[in-house]
Write a structure and sequence with these properties.
The chain is mostly helical. The chain has one domain. The chain has four helices and no strands. α2 runs antiparallel to α3. The model has no long low-confidence stretch (mean pLDDT 96).
């Protein structure tokens, strides 16, 4: 996991999970994509920043997913997904990726 920034994995999970759900019209399939990327990101967070940071970022990942829904009602679905993905990427970079 050393070569792939966790910021990219987390953001891709949020965007990709929504894209899969939207284009296949199968929300559970989007959830699988979201969860798979979250698991990969969590492994990276654990390796790079430790257990407490991984737990905090995991909580932020779930909160970003949940928060995108009410935000979408205000700004639209895709803008909401990109906004929370950007926030998650920034958090991942700040906590785990910038360390080295």
């Amino acid at each position: 996991m050393a070569g792939i920034p966790t910021a990219a994995v987390a953001a891709t999970g949020l965007v990709g999970g929504y894209a899969v759900a939207r284009w296949t019209k199968k929300r559970p399939l989007g959830g699988v994509a979201l969860a798979a990327a979250g698991a990969v990101a969590a492994k990276g967070w654990q390796e790079k920043a430790g257990g407490k940071a991984a737990a905090a970022l995991g909580g932020a990942y779930v909160a970003a997913f949940a928060g995108s829904h009410p935000l979408a009602k205000k700004i639209g679905a895709w803008p909401s997904v990109f906004a929370v993905a950007g926030g998650m990427a920034l958090a991942s970079w700040a906590v785990a990726d910038r360390r080295g």
